[in-house]
Amino acid sequence: PTNHLQVEGSCNIWRADCRAKGGSPGFKVAILGAAGGIGQPLAMLMKMNPLVSILHLYDVVNSPGVTSDISHMDTGAVVRGFLGQQQLEDALTGMDLVVIPAGVPRKPGMTRDDLFNINAGIVKTLCEGIAKCCPNAIVNVISNPVNSTVPIAAEVFKKAGTFDPERLLGVTMLDVVRANTFVAEVLGLDPREVNVPVVGGHAGVTILPLLSQVKPPCSFTQEEIEYLTSRIQNGGTEVVEAKAGAGSATLSMAYAAVKFADACLRGLRGDAGVVECAFVSSQVTELPFFASKVRLGRNGVEEIYALGPLNAHERVGLEKAKKELASSIEKGVSFVGK
Ligand code: NAD
Ligand code: LMR
């Protein structure tokens, strides 16, 4: 018997064990915080992803139930559950991709930065585990405040001597998903046909939609630009207020997280032309981290695209975004320095 919750393959006569050990095609993915509001639907969607061969579900509570439930889905991935700090290393060993939605969500009236005091320590501990057990894994950070938790992850990896800027990505995909939806509504298009680059970071004014670069090419009135910019920047708060104390976006976030994780896995597989927005270590601006379009490949982030031509409204937005981002990044860096 193993010390983790090996829901499939816990009996010697089950050949799933051989499939898990024998290198069936696909990637090994761990979700840290898998029993949470994001974690559960994310785990379900990852179990449906044909690129995933092994799915590790880690949490400090309730992971046995979530693992048992999800393991009954008749899709390819072998699911294993891990509960509590003492099983973190088993959960991480051998992983190709680690997705982190662990941590507390906002309640009405809070900013994402109000989550720093609790979530910074959670992300730090989890990243120490990653540095030890799967230092080459691609890491997708969802836990807020992303503008600070990604710098925290980077500092932990630097201290451990494992930092690879190409493999650490803050997930800003929900901003793009929202922007596509809201822009499609205004234009009367199918959201699946719309692509809006969203750059900067993942909080308030740091979320900078580049409406001048929307595909398919289009133009907006000043009123539409103001409405869309504000709705995209405040999309998270819109959900927090609608949930009225019961948390923040979970279902749209799980959708966005799996869309982003799938892009990372297609990159790892060697697919060409996989481009998404993410908050990464960057030289696009003078800041050490910035969200922009990146090309994903076998090594993670293989190319970071310049911002391209910005209009006057976007240039003003960029300056505001950089000011707030600089202090959020510094807050994360100094947390680990302590
Ligand atoms: P939740 O409270 O429903 O779930 C969080 C889970 O994390 C819980 O199951 C909890 O047990 C677990 N957890 C706590 N400490 C842990 C630890 N040390 N190790 C492993 N797991 C631990 O919250 P949620 O709604 O799923 O949100 C999670 C985080 O994601 C929040 O910080 C939230 O702000 C953030 N978020 C980010 C985005 C984004 O776009 N990046 C979008 C939505 C939410
Ligand atoms: C979001 O954008 O929905 C998340 O960052 C959660 C939040 O606190 O708004």
TrEMBL record:
Annotated residues for binding of NAD(+): G33, A34, A35, G36, G37, I38, G39, D59, N119, I142, S143, N144, M253
A Pfam family reported for this protein in Swiss-Prot or TrEMBL: Ldh_1_N
UniProt subcellular location: Peroxisome
Chief location of this protein within or outside the cell: other
InterPro entries documented for this protein: L-lactate/malate_DH, Lactate/malate_DH_C, Lactate/malate_DH_N, Lactate_DH/Glyco_Ohase_4_C, Malate_DH_AS, Malate_DH_type1, NAD(P)-bd_dom_sf
An MF annotation (GO) of this entry: L-malate dehydrogenase (NAD+) activity
Reaction it catalyzes: (S)-malate + NAD(+) = oxaloacetate + NADH + H(+)
Lactate/malate dehydrogenase C-terminal domain location: 172-335
Recorded superkingdom: Eukaryota
Catalytic residues of the enzyme: H202
GO biological process, one term: glyoxylate cycle
Annotated substrate binding sites: R106, R112, N144, R178
Domain named Lactate/malate dehydrogenase N-terminal: residues: 28-170
UniProt KW keywords: Glyoxylate bypass, NAD, Oxidoreductase, Peroxisome, Tricarboxylic acid cycle
One Gene Ontology cellular component annotation held by this UniProt entry: peroxisome
Entry EC no(s): 1.1.1.37
PANTHER family: MALATE AND LACTATE DEHYDROGENASE, MALATE DEHYDROGENASE 1, PEROXISOMAL
Subunit structure: Homodimer.
Family under the similarity heading: Belongs to the LDH/MDH superfamily. MDH type 1 family.
Protein name, as recorded: Malate dehydrogenase
